[in-house]
Write a structure and sequence with these properties.
single chain, mainly alpha, 10 helices
Length: 258
């Protein structure tokens, strides 16, 4: 299981692109995960996925720093979501080491199709802060988001950032910019939950993880600054593009690869 220099260089380029996209609308794992699995066929799948959590964490961290400078966060809400999401992601990664995640893809295919249709048809979706929720309803939505998406990120992963943004927009009434900022913190918690599990099991390949982490972080910092500068309409457009790309990816996995 030797790692060629040109393979590592290609992985680093991919990590930069993934960090850039993920900082704006999530979905960086859709670029990073399939590519790494193709480039590293001789490595165990669990080890590849475990190693990718390190660059994902670093890219999200740099993006979060940029958002914190410009965007006000709901710290009470985000603390609850991040805490629950950490443990949900840990549980999802534990399950990943036991069973296949293939059965989830048809379900996600339907969900993503509905997301794409809704986002495209609602031209003002996510362009303004929309909802004033009671504390009780806000807490219930926060628990729902953190448990479901946290578990998904630990178990399957790709697209989790986009799902978080969608949840913040549709359930909590945030605009896309604030949704992206809050999603970065939750992504940190879910990545940390997975990393904790994979560290305990010794699955991370550090020779791959560290160089990719540096490149993903650079992409994340640039992407976050661009999102802040361009605003909600730009994020909405890229979000829709990534959702459709995710949809096509799952269609390929289900109908072509199967």
């Amino acid at each position: 299981m030797n790692l060629e220099v040109y393979h590592l260089a290609l992985l680093c380029l991919i990590a930069f692109c993934a960090g850039f996209v993920d900082a704006i609308v999530g979905g960086g794992g859709l670029i990073q995960t399939p590519a790494a699995l193709v480039i590293l066929p001789s490595f165990p799948v669990a080890s590849v996925i475990a190693s990718l959590k390190i660059p994902s964490f670093s890219g999200t961290s740099l993006a979060m720093v940029q958002y914190l400078k410009k965007v006000n966060l709901n710290w009470r809400l985000i603390t609850i979501i991040c805490t629950i999401a950490f443990f949900s992601s840990f549980a999802g990664s534990q399950l990943l080491t036991i069973i296949s995640n293939q059965f989830m893809k048809p379900v996600l295919l339907v969900v993503l199709a509905l997301v794409a249709i809704y986002t495209f048809s609602k031209k003002k979706f996510g362009e303004h802060q929309a909802k004033e929720l009671s504390d009780k309803k806000e807490l219930l939505y926060a628990i729902f988001i953190s448990v479901i998406i946290g578990f998904y990120d630990g178990f399957i992963g790709p697209g989790a950032g986009s799902f978080l943004i969608l949840a913040f927009v549709s359930l909590l009434g945030f605009d896309f910019l604030h949704s992206s900022a809050h999603a970065k913190l939750v992504n940190l918690a879910t990545n940390l939950g997975s990393i904790t599990l994979f560290l305990l099991k010794g699955k991370i390949i550090w020779a791959i993880a560290i160089p990719m982490a540096v490149c993903n972080a650079a992409g994340g910092a640039i992407g976050a600054n661009l999102a802040i500068a361009k605003g909600n309409r730009f994020i909405r457009t890229l979000f829709l593009f990534i959702v459709i790309a995710t949809l096509l990816r799952f269609m390929y996995d289900i109908f072509v690869k199967a």
